Amino acid sequence: MGEEKSPEAKNPEPKTEDTFGLVLKYLCPFCGSEVQEDHVDDIGTKWFKCPKCGGQTAKPKSEERKRLEEALEHLKEIKRPVTLEEVADILNSTIKHDKLNKVIAFLTGLLTFTEEDQINLAFTAESSTGKSYIPLELAWYFPRNSIIEYSYVSPTAFFHEYGDLMTDPSDNREVEEKEKRKVVVVDLHQKILIFLDQPHDMLLQRIRPLLSHDRKTLVYKITDRKERSGLRTKTVYLNGYPTVYFCSAKFSMEDQERTRLLLLSPETTQEKLKDSILLKIQKEGDRQAFFKFMEGDPRRNWLRRRVEEIARERILFVVVPESFREKIAERFFEIHNSLIPRHQRDITRLLALIKAHAMLNLWHREKIELSGSVIVNEEDVNEGFKLYKEVSEANELGLPPEVYEIYKELEPKIPDEGITRKQFQALYYETFHRTMGKKRLEEILNLLESVGLFSQELDPNDKRQKLVLPTCRRVFISEAQTKGKEPQKTLIQNEKINTPQGVGNAFSPKFKDVDVLSVGNVKPRYTALNCDRCGKPKVIGAYKVKLIGKPLEAYVVCEDCGQFLIKFLRERDQP
User: Fold this and answer.
1) pLDDT one-digit tens code per residue, 44-65
2) Does residue 342 sit in helix, strand or coil?
3) E strand or H helix at 65
């Protein structure tokens, strides 16, 4: 008979603690069933045997250890690399289409957890397009304590309502604490401010220094009307840089606000509207079942947990290495041949998108643990440029994408002599299949005129109305038009505008060489034009061409074409 084994060896004590201090209940590492001790070998190692699968092991698992390993495996899954395509697909569960808008808004939210890389977004579009819907749906993925929502807030209530009353740190008087000046401290550090359906931009005008990150702590002096004390001055400290989502159906923001915001507009395509209506039917058909399904969606919860883990990492800074800084500068200057002052703020938004992509995959980026920094790589730079390219053209003109889309669709359909406002409304209806009211028409035309894409001039045939003319191919209406003759066209046809891609492009020749009547020198005022013969852009001080049978027509050609035509005329006119 073999040596009798002690009861302790046969049945491991369930309250024995392992190196983690967890209560053990030994399980088979192969099938998960409870094991029993089988024998102790010559060197004293205890071996356990599973009665279910027959496997033997010297390292059985506890239930606690198994749960810990499962949690670690789940955490590993949460921290795996993820693409923007996958993020957009997950967000598509409640935000149909609008890929660019939801991805940029989501990435912007991740920058909230950095020290000072936050940026500001504005969703501006006509009513019922989903301006506030996108940020509200995205807020579900972020910690509740980081979200502050304002259905409406007046410019003064923003300072009065929120904040903690504290002793003014600048009050150095030697008096009791309760007698020192009090100030209101509003902590906005790592907060997401969502302003829903604001009727105007007065609040944005009040917080301009906050939006442009002038100081991390801003001091505001405002007046507070007490019931019996009259007006009193109140000091408010705003601490930290928040991420701001501003939603409004108004386009009439000041230029100072437009340059501080990344402008986005929800899509209004038929595909998006159809899918949104189907989602609405599912949601409102059985709200309880819909919300239960959404709350239990494993992919949505996976992304939500990922955001929580990103916040727990406490990343202070996202660093762009020197080598990538040079590449970013080269690509930015390549896109922008002529720089304008607002590009100083546009480059910040480009860098923010690059850094946000690095935050999304921070576990797969180099880190500087001492400073709590993440290092940007080449993939982040490329993805950032892709996103920025999609919104840069409208933003660098200071236009909401919806307004710029209206311009791109309608401008080619407007004749050189212009159209009336009523004709503009009819053209809009014909293109977008919805009406445009007088107030909205005024708002859009004024905005397009403020950035120089359209101009409005009195109709020479009817001074009671104005004509809408595209600035890029402007027509000077001469007296010839009033006499029933063709209007004289200017030489600024399809002129290039200072945008990344340019509103105007090179165009085909406007005449044939055999139709040329004469070639004369052009005065210096004819600058920055395209050649009407070869399409070469930015012709400066070239030649003016007149055609046979068209005395009112005049064209500008480049120096090379001008010299060629002079030689051509000499040879043609020789007997």
Assistant:
1) 677 778 887 877 776 555 555 5
2) coil
3) helix 63-78
Q: How confident is the model at residue 183 (pLDDT cuts 50, 70, 90)?
A: confident
Over range 386-411, report the average pLDDT: 90
Q: What is the dihedral of CA 518, 524, 528, 531, to 10 degrees?
A: 10
Residues 173 and 180: beta-carbon distance below 8 Å: yes
Residue limits of CATH 3.40.50 in the chain: 84-170+180-309
> Mind listing the pLDDT tens digit for each residue in 97-141?
999 999 999 999 999 999 989 999 999 888 888 888 999 999 999
- CB-CB neighbours of 429 under 10 Å: 12
Cα 34 to the chain's mean position, in Å?
54
Please state the φ and ψ torsions of residue 539, each to the nearest 5 degrees: -80, 130
Please list the residue range(s) of the chain that carry CATH number 1.10.10.10. Answer: 401-482
Query: Whole-model pTM?
Result: 0.70
Q: What is the CATH number of domain 84-170+180-309?
A: 3.40.50
Written as one letter, the residue type at 320 is V
Nearest to 235 by CA among 175, 149, 168: 168
Q: What is the mean pLDDT of residues 265-274?
A: 90
| 198 close to 249: Cβ distance less than 8 angstroms | no
- pLDDT band, residue 2 (cuts 50/70/90): very low
In angstroms, rounded to a whole number, what is the distance separating the alpha carbons of residues 93 and 90?
6
Name the nearest CA neighbour of 491 among 523, 459, 453. Answer: 523
CB atoms within 10 A of CB 172: 8
Query: Where does 401-482 sit in CATH, by number?
Result: 1.10.10.10
Q: Coil, strand, or helix at residue 221?
A: strand
Strand partners, 237: 185, 219
Q: How far apart are CA 29 and CA 478, in angstroms?
A: 92
Instruction: Tell me the CB-side half-sphere exposure of residue 72, using CA atoms within 13 A.
Output: 6
Neighbouring CB atoms inside 10 A of 66's CB total 14
Q: Are 121 and 244 in contact (CB under 8 A)?
A: yes
Of 163, 160, 215, the residue nearest 188 (C-alpha) = 163
Residue 222 bridge partners (DSSP): 234
Angstrom distance (rounded) from CA 435 to CA 447: 18
Q: What is the DSSP letter of 489?
A: B
474: Cβ–Cβ under 8 A, 6 or more apart, which residues? 455, 490, 492
Task: Evaluate whether 258 touches 243 at the Cβ level (below 8 Å).
Answer: no
Distance of CA 412 to the CA centre of its chain: 28
The Cα-based distances of 268 to 210, 401, 513, 567 in angstroms read 32, 11, 47, 55
Helix (H, G, I), strand (E, B) or coil at 385: helix
Q: Give Cα 530 to chain centroid, integer Å.
A: 34
The amino acid that residue 208 corresponds to is R
CB 46 within 8 A of CB 9: yes
User: What span, in angstroms and rounded, lies between the C-alpha atoms of 554 and 424?
Assistant: 29
User: Which is higher by pLDDT, 416 or 485?
Assistant: 416
- What lies within 8 Å, CB to CB, of 421 at 6+ separation is 441, 445, 465, 466, 468
Q: Quote the DSSP letter at residue 62.
A: P
